[in-house]
What we know:
Layout: E1 7-12, H1 21-32, E2 37-41, E3 61-63, H2 72-86, H3 88-104, H4 108-124, E4 129-135, H5 139-151, E5 155-159, H6 162-165, H7 169-178, E6 182-184, H8 187-199, E7 206-208, E8 230-235, H9 244-256, E9 261-266, H10 272-281, E10 288-290, H11 296-304, E11 308-311, H12 326-334, E12 338-341, E13 357-359, H13 364-376, H14 382-395, H15 398-413
Parallel strand pairs: 1-2, 1-4, 2-3, 4-5, 5-6, 6-7, 8-9, 8-11, 9-10, 11-12, 12-13
Helix pairs in contact: 1-15, 2-3, 2-4, 3-4, 4-5, 9-13, 12-14
Amino acid sequence: MSHGTRYLGMVLKGFPRISESFISTEIILLESLGIPIQIYSLREPRENFSHRSVRQIKASVTYMPEYVLPHWKTLLDTNAMLWRRLGHHYANCLKRAVRRACERKSTAVLRHFFQAAHLCTVRLIDRPVAHLHAHFCHTPASVAFFASDLLGLPFSFTAHAKDIYTSEPSQIARKMEKARFVVTCTRSNARYLARIAEDAHIGIPIHTIYHGIDIDFFKFEPVPPPAPPYHILSVGRMVPKKGYDDLLTALKLLDQKGLDFLFTHIGSGEMEEQIGGMVRDLGLGHRVRLLGTLAHEEVISHYRKSHCFALACKVASNGDRDGIPNVLVEAMAVGLPVVATNVSAIPELVENGVTGLLVESRDPRAMSEALYDTLLHPEKYRAYVERARARVERDFDNRRCVVSLHSLFSDALDLP
Length: 416
């Protein structure tokens, strides 16, 4: 760390992660604007490759013990060191954490406290980190919350999608009460968080800042008029909220209509086996390619040779849902017609009949009809893709989006 520099400490669940390239891009842009950053990752990378852009990041990365039992000695040593340093204050913070763990009947609370104390010992105490910011309002924000409690460091967090809607509102409120500010990536999320704050009588700034994309990387090159076999593309994790079971059912309906098409999916996840089985059961093996996770440079080549982009997002049974999937922004940026569902914040990006087509979630027939219409009547959608690109340039250029975030962090660090 440079002498006299005030750093932003960024607490992440994992780094780098293929599915969270927006975080890496955010860090790169913030660094380019003069925000000095230190990264604290709660686990080691789980993928054996990363997007090429990650190499541009200058911040050092500290990997912390992910669980207590495999690292009990390390955590015991660092927590003991902090106890000796802070004395009664550490003990009081620990008592509050134990009380909270008992109230929630959750050992995760104590894990987060011990991780926070470890972070304080090895990277925060006597270091020029002036503000902590966590991405996601569950585990990372919990660790930042406890580190703030232990050292008095101000903290903030960005709330995204699953972390908001699968967390207890009381848990979110507890963190909001102590945070300096909250950032979220959609207006829909902001309204939900504002209701939580209002119900808990908390006055806290909630800033809506879209992630955005690199519009120079995702250049606008509309595809030629589609012809059989029509290429349909989808990119996303294989998890319930993405609705790939509904999308495959829609594709079966297209197949039954006699449409000659190929469907390519990029991504991986917990439903891989289930989705693969569904492809076989529906007799779509000759229509569907499941490519797994790919780097950005490979993904964009698939955008370029596809005729339509499809995403059938829905609210999962546990409340999990998307915000604005970045892949929709990317598809619209390059000039690919999009068909999606009107769930959560997607209508903030895709305006039905103006920049794309939206259908009700959990309605495979409506999805199949929208895809059919898009592919067989491309002349209707030429204006859509041009308006879609203009929408992305106006509101989702990450160089513009990051300016608001830079202002927040500059104020937090008291930068000139």
